[in-house]
Each structure stands twice: as C-alpha cells, then as structure tokens.
Design goal:
With about 500 residues, the chain is of the alpha/beta class. Helices cover about 45% and strands about 10% of the residues. It folds into three domains: about 280 residues, Aldolase class I (TIM Barrel, Alpha-Beta Barrel); about 100 residues, Orthogonal Bundle (Cyclin A, domain 1); about 30 residues, no CATH class. Helix 4 crosses helix 21, helix 10 packs across helix 11 and helix 15 crosses helix 16.
Length: about 500
C-alpha cells in the first residue's frame, strides 16, 4: 500500500483558524511527547502572526516558545512560515532583517521553513531560500491557490516551472488557504503541478471553509499527492483543516497506508478537547457550503474583522456590500490572492470605499504600495484608471519613486539603542511595538505548568490539590481508588 505522510498543523494553523492564535505554550508542552511519537512528518508551530500574538496578547517570548517546543519534539521537525518581503506585518522589511530572522529560526530549532509569496514572484524568495539552506533548514515553497481569470492551470504550470528553475525547493505545496479548491479542479491542477516537479514531494494544504477540503485531499492523494496537512479533531474543520482522524480512516479504507499512530492521535485529541473546555475555546465543526465564498474569497477569520470594523461605526448591516466591493477591487488590482497581507489591504480599501461613499477617495499607504508594485509583480496589470487615481492621492506622496532602505543589522542595533541585547530580542524590537516587547520581557519566563488532558483523573487530582480550602481528596472509579490528605500530598 502507498504510504501517506501528514504534517500536523494543530499548534499553528489550527488555533490560528479557530482560537484567534491564542493557544499558549503551556497548552502544547504536556502533550508534546505524544506528538513527537505520533509519526508526523513535521509539526507546524509558528507563523509570523504567532510572534505578534505571543507578544501582544499572551505575553510570551515567541523565541522561547520555539526553543521549548523544539526540545519537547526532538524527533519531529518543527515548521515555521514566513511571507516574502513583508515578514511580520504589512510593511516591507530590509533584507538584513529577513536574513537574521531565518538564521534565528534555525538556531532556535526550526527545521522546515515554508516560504511563500502570494504573487508568485519568485524573485522575492530567492535570497530567503538560499539563507535557509545555508543554515540547514529544508524549504517548502507553496503555490497559493486562487480563483480568477489569471489563476488557470496554465498559470500554475508556468509558475511551478519557474519555481523549479529558480528556487529548487525540498517540498512543493498546494496552499489553499481560503478553502476554494473543488474536487473537479483538483483533478486538473494536481497533475499539472506534478508534471513540472517530477519526483519532488507534493503536499496538500487546504482549509474546510466551504466544506470540501476533505474530499479535495482524498482526491489529491489518488492523483499522487503524498503529504496532507491536518489537525487533530478538536482544532479541525470550520475554517481550519481536515482532521487527521477522518483523513487516516478514509485513506486506509481506500487502500492507502497512513503513516501515523492513531492511538497517540486519540490521546492528543483528548488533551486539546480538555484544553478547549477548560479555556472556553470553540471546537471545530463541519461547515455548510457557501457559494459566496468563491466570489469574495475573504478568509473566514478576516470576515469577523470586517464585521468588527463595521460594527464600530454602526454599519454592520453593510457587510455584504463590503464583500461585493472586495470582489470588484480584487479585479481592479490584478487579482491578488486573498491571504495576508493582500486580503487585509483589499478588505480595508473596500470598507473605505463603501463607508465614504466615493471609491478611492482615500487609500492606505500599503494599498498604494501594492498597486505601485512595491510588493512584487501583480498577477495581472492593475486597472490604469485605479492606478492613476490612487497615485494622485496625497497618501501617495513619497511612494512614487520609493526605494527600499537596506540598513545593516549593526545600523539597526544603533537605532534601537540597546547595546548587548540578543539577536532574538533585537528582531522583536525592530519588528513589533515596543510596549508589547517590554510587557513580555517584564512577564518573565513562559509558564509551563498545565494538566495533561488525556489523563483526566490525574488532571483532576492536580487541580484539586491546588485548592487551599480542601483538606481531603478521595477519587474512586472502577478498579481505581485514591485518597489524599493535606500534609501527605
């Protein structure tokens, strides 16, 4: 039977999709030994958005998280991902910062790096791929899937051939972040890409936003995909990935050999089910099919952000109007793929156009940068009338003949004015708001103590022993009895 491997995305994309990127390191560490023994090809841990969430909301040093989880998973490569020129935000960052970021990923324990450019402008990635290879990191390059008159099978064949010539990755991925793939398109797209990559491993990464990802993953395996991205069931489905439980069961019934230890997977799922209940987090569930998703192509998490932006202005009832405007702007801007940062740029412009009652009366600096080509070559030309109007806005002053500054790391150290800080801290201070970095440092080391949810009796005993007003604990179930008294614990 043909062996199928899995990348676990629970610690990265799973909670990014369902828990707003709020999983703590303490939620991960108790179950890490089982994750390490489950047979996953790799475990996704960090995107650059996770660095921001660690600092902004959790007050956890993200580099410390990488080190802790890397130590806890010695046999399973950890994977991180970075966005070409913008790295952690919508800003374009200097090459020296990207270089140091990749080097520190390798030094802290990252072994796989997914390096992507949603414009498929491989010139944006060539330096990053070379740096990753130099520090011993394997490179995954995604072809980011989208729907438009531009994103045809011929487009992906051309871009795959260019990728193979210029980047020579270790793995190629079909990255369907918005959940737009259909089984029909899989049947033409997968053979097209495989025809360009030869024997190189092909990986499928699809979200369940329209409910079709499980079918698309199964059909892709039938066509030669050997790696599937999945989550354990509590953090699967919804806007997340298919569950490993469902994928393994169906693939085995279809005659394939899933390379995963399902006994350990079930215990991992029990743990995160416990975490979800304890922390009041949602658990993933299958979603109904939504045809409108294929028109506006806005990721699920971003729709909630648009709703929030509109609600603040008493305009929540205009969401559908904004989504319609998104589809118009996307065409005018040359069909950018609707993932970060471009989904946010298009979405913000749509809100401005609708609420101000005049299209392109104002624009964000990042939106202007996009149409001017600062992020790279757009898939199709930007509408000339839109380009003229945005270029003539006051916000465009200083951007028309802009050249990216390229300060060295030494110059950035002087600018930060904190001699002696580590490279890890320097990167945080260069890329993130100072108040969040300071608050995180003040919070001290990451808290690691958390019950292991697949052992509910032990978790219960641990929690009860922390209660100072309890002097005697007795736990009894069939074949088991435990009695503890304060002072003997």
């Amino acid at each position: 039977m043909e062996e199928i491997r899995f990348v676990d995305t629970t610690l990265r994309d799973g909670h990014q999709s369902l828990w707003a990127t709020r999983m703590r390191t303490a939620h991960m560490l108790p179950i890490a030994p089982l994750l390490d023994e489950a047979g996953f090809m790799a475990a996704e841990l960090m995107g650059t958005v996770h660095f921001d969430a660690c600092l902004r909301y959790l007050r956890e040093d993200p580099w410390e998280r990488v080190r802790l989880v890397s130590e806890a998973l010695p046999n399973t490569p950890l994977r991180a991902l970075i966005r070409s020129k913008s790295l952690t935000s919508f800003n374009i960052v200097p090459d020296s910062v990207i270089k140091l970021w990749i080097e520190r990923c390798g030094a802290n324990g990252i072994r796989h790096l997914m390096i992507f450019d949603a414009l498929h402008d491989w010139n944006n990635l060539s330096k990053s791929v070379s740096i990753a290879r130099a520090v011993g990191i394997q490179v995954v390059v995604p072809l980011v899937y989208s729907l438009s008159p531009v994103h045809t099978d011929e487009f992906y064949a051309k871009k795959t051939a260019e990728m193979m010539r210029t980047l020579n990755p270790d793995y190629v991925m079909i990255k369907d972040s918005i959940g737009l793939l259909t089984p029909e398109r899989v049947k033409t797209l997968v053979p097209t890409i495989k025809g360009e990559i030869g024997d190189l491993p092909l990986e499928m990464h699809s979200h369940c936003t329209t409910g079709l990802a499980p079918l698309c993953c199964i059909d892709s395996v039938r066509l030669g995909v050997g790696i599937i991205d999945t989550c354990v069931s509590p953090l699967a489905n919804g806007s997340s990935h298919p569950s490993i439980e469902n994928m393994a069961m169906n693939l085995e019934r279809l005659g394939f050999s899933p390379k995963v230890d399902m006994d350990r997977v079930r215990k991992i799922s029990e743990h995160f089910r416990y975490v979800a209940r304890r922390e009041g987090k949602p658990m993933g569930a299958p979603v109904e099919y939504d045809a409108f998703q294929y028109i506006h192509q806005v990721p699920g998490g971003m729709i909630s952000n648009l709703e929030f932006m509109l609600s603040e202005r008493g305009m929540a009832h205009r969401l559908e109007e904004v989504l319609e405007e998104v589809s118009v702007i996307r065409e005018e801007w040359g069909y950018p793929v609707m993932i970060t940062p471009f989904s946010q740029l298009v979405g913000t412009q749509a809100v401005l156009n609708v609420l101000l009652g005049e299209r392109y009366k104002v624009a964000t600096e990042e939106g202007i940068r996009y149409v001017l080509g600062h992020y790279g070559k757009t898939p199709a030309p930007v509408d000339p009338n839109v380009l003229d109007k945005m270029s003539g806005l006051p916000e465009a002053k200083g951007l028309l003949n802009w050249e990216q500054p390229q300060p060295s790391i030494e110059e950035l150290r002087k600018e930060i004015g904190r001699p002696g800080i580590s490279d890890d801290e320097l990167l945080l201070r260069v890329l993130f708001p100072e108040e969040h970095v300071e608050a995180t440092i003040s919070a001290g080391p990451i808290k690691k103590d958390y019950p292991r949810g697949d052992k509910p009796v032990m978790a219960l005993v641990r929690e009860l022993t922390k209660q100072q007003d309890i002097s005697h604990i007795r736990v009894q179930k069939e074949g088991f009895s435990l009695s503890l008294k304060r002072g003997s614990v």
